[in-house]
Design a protein that fits this description.
307 residues, alpha/beta, Arc Repressor Mutant, subunit A, 2 domains, four-stranded mixed beta sheet, 13 helices, 51% helix, 14% strand, globular, disordered C terminus
Length: 307
């Protein structure tokens, strides 16, 4: 590797580290705002807690979360108010779904799903070549794995050298051949988190039981800005009593964001847990809610008008 290549690699590594430090700052801010929501903390107080200036926090939060700290606090406050209303009226999906289900899917990105064949499941990936790579995203680092048939793996991870993350990918496809190529995966990962419309479909390769794949496909059809309960999701797949099985299917999700298990909350309106961190779940839901509102504004309509 020549000196120019070394220099470019060093710059790229530095930029990646800076982006991930920025996400950690945003994650700490989200955690603080969640914990102190009843007291409505201001920008100055939040910035002091995470150890940066108000200007730096405002800029970093807005770039990475897509909304300002104030807007995020408003989202939490309104979500809490709606949860109280739902608890009193025993209605979960209506308050979130009304007027928000029309304008597109996740970043207007079409997702085509292919299920792994029984033979491929039995072979555990024998003869399959998986190209994988790490990249920084607005919600933290991810590792992605791609096959000739589609994306088979997308998980948030703490490090771009994470041996645990690589080991998890290998454990899912024990006999597959893995090859790291961050550059080859950068375009695919970028598309997952892009807001550009009109892109070609992104193909997914799903490995699971028929029931699990049915749950995942139902999730993909939940529009950004909406949430559902485990019971509602079970009803959507015509298994209204299979709430526990639905939860197990979500736990087996290997494709973060694209199979949006972050949109599933508890029946009482509580946001619940998320395998990649509740702060990240809050951020994903807040950004999607804001994007839904922006789509309505650009179309000349409004959620309230659609009700």
């Amino acid at each position: 590797m020549n000196e120019d290549s070394n220099a470019n690699a060093a710059v790229a590594t530095g930029e990646l580290d800076e982006r991930c430090r920025a996400y950690e700052t945003v994650a700490r801010a989200i955690r603080f705002v969640r914990q102190h929501r009843p007291y409505q903390p201001g920008l100055q107080e939040i910035a002091e807690h995470v150890g940066v200036s108000p200007f730096h926090l405002q800029r970093t939060f807005s770039v990475w979360a897509g909304i300002s700290p104030k807007r995020f606090l408003q989202y939490l406050t309104s979500a809490h108010a709606r949860s109280l209303l739902r608890a009193q009226n025993d209605v979960l999906a209506t308050a979130y779904a009304t007027g928000l289900s029309g304008p597109g899917r996740l970043h207007d990105l079409l997702v085509a799903c292919d299920a792994v064949t029984p033979g491929e499941v039995r072979s555990l990936g024998e003869g399959l070549r998986i190209t994988y790579g790490f990249a920084a995203t607005p919600f933290g680092r991810v590792i992605a794995g791609n096959t000739p048939r589609g994306l088979c793996h997308l998980q948030f991870t703490a490090s771009d050298q994470g041996t645990d993350a690589i080991a998890l990918l290998q454990s899912e496809w024990p006999h597959a051949s893995l090859q790291r190529d961050d550059e080859a995966l950068s375009e695919t990962i970028g598309r997952v988190f892009s807001v550009v419309e009109g892109q070609r479909p992104l193909h997914l390769l799903l490995r699971g039981t028929n029931f699990q794949i049915k749950v995942w496909e139902a999730l993909i059809n939940i529009a950004p800005g909406n949430v559902v309960s485990y019971r509602t999701l079970a009803t959507l797949i015509d298994h209204p009593r299979a709430q526990r099985a639905v939860g197990s299917a979500l736990a087996r999700n290997r494709l973060a964001v694209l199979i949006p298990c972050h949109r599933v909350i508890r029946e009482n309106g509580d946001i619940g847990n998320y395998r990649w961190g509740s702060e990240r779940k809050h951020a994903l839901l807040a950004v999607e809610a804001e994007q839904s509102r922006n789509r309505w504004r650009s179309s000349g309509a409004s959620p309230a008008a659609a009700e």
